[in-house]
Design brief:
3 helices, alpha+beta
Amino acid sequence: MSENKKNGLNIELTEEVAEGTYSNLAIINHSPSEFVVDFVQMMPGIKKAKVKSRIILTPQHAKRFMKALVENISKFEEQHGEINDIGPSNSIPLNFGGPTPMA
């Protein structure tokens, strides 16, 4: 029996939230009491990116989330092969490798 069923946790997922929000960049900041993760959507040729969602976590929850993400990435790679990293995490490809737009 899953832990959720043992604890009687009932999670509701609305249609709107179930659709999800696309993000291709995450910006993480932190203070002594919280981690703030901004999920950003960058589009080719557009220099202005929009934060599509902001999630605020306690340090303890952020660490649990990190462990769960590492575990799930490992399971994914076992099934589908290694995920290739696109390069240094501090480089933001503002034009996605395509032509730079000119006015």
